[in-house]
Fold this sequence. Notes:
Chain A has 321 residues and is mainly α. Helices cover 73% and strands 1% of the residues of chain A. Chain A has helices at 14-61, 79-85, 88-118, 124-132, 134-138, 141-151, 158-165, 177-205, 210-217, 222-249, 254-259, 271-280, 285-319; strands spanning 63-64, 74-75.
Amino acid sequence: MTGRSHRFGLSPRFEKISEVQHKGIRAGRxxxxxxxYLLSLPALLVCxxxxxxxxxxxxxxxxxxxLSQPWNRGMNWGENYxxxxxxxxxxxxxxxxxxYAGLTVVLELLLGLGxxxxxxxxxxxxxxxxxxLLMPLMTAPVLAALMFKLMTNPNFGILSYFMQxxxxxxxRWGSDPSTALFTVILVDIWVYTPFMMILxxxxxxSLPPQPFEAAALDGVPRWQQFWRITLPMLMPYVLxxxxxxxxxxxxxxxxxxxxxxxGPGDTLMVFQVEAYLNFFQSTNIGRSAALxxxxxxxxxxxxxxxxxNWLRLRERARGEI
Amino acid sequence: xxxxxxxxxxxxxxxxxLIVLFFMFPIFWIxxxxxxxxxxxxxxxxxxxxxxxxxxxxxxxxxxxxxxxxSLDIRFLGNLWNSIILSVGSVxxxxxxxxxxxxxxxxxxxxxxxxIAFTLLSFRFAPPLLxxxxxxxxxxxxxxxxxYFGLIWVYxxxxxxxxxxxxxxxxxxxxxxxxxxxRIAGHGWFATFRNIALPLxxxxxxxxxxxxxxFAWNNFIFALVLASADKQPVTVGALAFVTASGIQYGQIAxxxxxxxxxxxxxxxxxxxxLVEGLSLGAVKG
Lengths: 321, 285
C-alpha cells in the first residue's frame, strides 16, 4: 500500500513513485469493497459473542428448567409465558415496573424542565450550577443508593432525623412497604434528574431567538410564551430525553437491589430484580429467562420509538455545525 | 425579558438554592461522615461540629481495621484496583475496536452498515440480565469466569455503542473533501485515517473515551453477576463492604467517597463534552 509513500514525494525517482501510487490507488479501489467490513469486523465479533447468549436466553425461556430439579428439565415451549397470565406475582412485577418507570420519568421531566428553564440564560452562575448538578448523574446509581441508605438509617440517618423534626416519628423509608417506593424514586430522581436537565437545557439554548423576540415585542405574557412557543419547539427534546429515561427506568436494577432487594415483601419486585432473584435464589432459570424476554419485548418497542426521535434530533444537531 | 421584578429574582434565587441544596447535600453529608468516628456519627441529634479524622481512610488504605474488640480485614483497595483495570481495559478495547468501525460507518456506506450500527446501539437498550444470566454458564465452560478478560469483553456492551456513535458523529463532521485531497496527493487510506481523520476527531474520541470510562466504572450489574470475589469493582465491593464491616459507618462512607471521587473528577474535567455524549450526539452542548 502507499501508506508511507508521501515521505518520498519529492524524490528524484518521481516516475517510479507515481507508478507505485497508481497501483496503490487501484489496490485501494479493490479494498474499498472489503475495507469497511475489515474495519468494523472486530466490533462485529464482539457483537456476535453477545448475540449467542441472547439466543440461549430465548431457549431457556421455553424450558422447564430449575437448577434444583435437574432431572425435570425439558422443553415446555410457551408454558412459562402462559403461566404468567394466571400468576399474581407476574402482574405485580409488571405493575411495579410500569409505576416505577412512569413516576420517575414524569417527575424527573417536570423537575428537569423546571431547572432548565431557571438556568436558561447563559450567566456565569447558571453555567456553574449546571456543571455541579452533573455530579449526581456521574455517581454510580448503586453508590447513590448506598449513600441514601446511610442517610435514612433509623439510628443516625440525617434524613430520618429531618423526618422526626417534621413530626414523622417513625418514618422507615425503604424498610416500610408504604414508603419503599417513595424512597427508591427519591434516589432515582436524585441521580437522573440532571440528565433530563442538561438535555433540555441544551435544547432550550439551541432554540432560535426570533420567535421569542417577536413575542416579547408583541407583549405576549410569559406563561403564554412558554405554552405556545417554548414547549412546542422543545417537544422533540422532551420526547427523546423521556424515551431514553423510560428505557433505562423500566430496567432499573441497581438502586432497587442496593436499597431493598425488591422488598419489603414484593413491593419493589421490578423485572430485573425479580429475574435476578429467580435465577440465583429460587434457581428457576426458565421463569427468569421468560421474564427477561418480556422485558426485552417492552424495551424493543420503546427503543424503536426512541431511535426514530433520536435520529431526527441527531440529524438536526449535526446540521447546525 | 428585562422586566423582572425584584420579587421574581428573589424567588428564582431561592429555587436555585433549594435545587443546589437537594442535589449537593448527599455528597456533602457522606463526605462529612467519612471524616468522623463512629461515636460522632451516632450522636443524636446529628451535628456538623466534630474534629475531623482521617482514620477511616487510613483503615481502608492499610487494609485492616483494628478496634478494641477485633481486627477486620478490608479488601476495598483491591476493589478500587479492579475498577481501574476493568474501566481502563474496557475503554482501551472499545477504542481499539470502536474507532475504526466508527470511521467505516461514517465514511463508507456499505451494505448492511446501518443495520450493524443499529444492532450495536440496540445493545445499549436491551436488559443486561438477558445476556448476563446465560453468560454465567458460558464463562464457566470457556474458563474465563475468573478473569478480567471476560468482564472486559462484556463491558463492551456499555462502552462500544457509546464510542461507536459519538466518534462516528465526529468523523462525519470532518468534511470528506479534506480527506479526498489528501488521498489524491497519493496517500493510502491508512495514512489518511491516521494523519487526517484521527487528529481531527481527537476531541470526540477523548470525550467518548472519558464517558465510556465513567459508565464502565459506575456499572454494577455486570460485575455483580459475573465477577468472582477477587475481581469485583468498587460498586460491588462497596455493597459487600456494608455487610462485612458491620457497623463501621464511617468507613462505609469513606469507601463511597473513594468510589465516586474518580468519576466526579473526570465528569467535571470533561463537562464540555458530557451533554453530547450522554445523548449519543443528539444534542449539542
